[in-house]
Write a structure and sequence with these properties.
The protein is built from 4 helices and 5 strands, in the order βαβαβαββα. It is of the alpha/beta class.
């Protein structure tokens, strides 16, 4: 289902740019999934189509929002050229922090704290 960040205003959002072919992205997904009960996660798949993303999400049993970005339109708006790239957006819609590369669980907690999510 389509989603816009304005639909999620009033709550913190973790905007994650990744790809189905990215081994680092896949390695951190279990921790991302585990945190999705505390923060709204929107995962954008850089230059991947809906069928590829849907199949990937289904195979991995993902519950986070998985959004294809087939022509790179979304990633261009965020000047994202590498995966994974993480944007942590506060409840007011401001980007509180950005991280490039795979994150450890402790780093995820640190970034979530910046948008008001208490550590788990």
């Amino acid at each position: 289902n389509p989603v816009t960040l304005s639909d999620l205003k009033g709550q913190p959002v973790w905007l994650l740019f990744q790809a189905t072919w990215c081994s680092s992205c896949r390695a951190e997904l279990p921790d991302v999934e585990a945190m999705s009960d505390r923060v709204e996660v929107v995962s954008v798949y850089l230059k991947e189509d809906r069928d590829t993303v849907s199949d990937y999400a289904e195979r991995l049993g993902l519950t986070i929002r998985s959004t294809p970005d087939p022509i790179g339109e979304i990633s261009l708006k965020y000047l994202t050229t590498s995966v994974p790239t993480h944007f942590f957006i506060d409840a007011d819609g401001a980007i509180a922090s950005v991280a490039k590369g795979a994150l450890s669980l402790a780093e995820m907690e640190e970034h979530l704290a910046k948008v008001g999510i208490p550590t788990g």
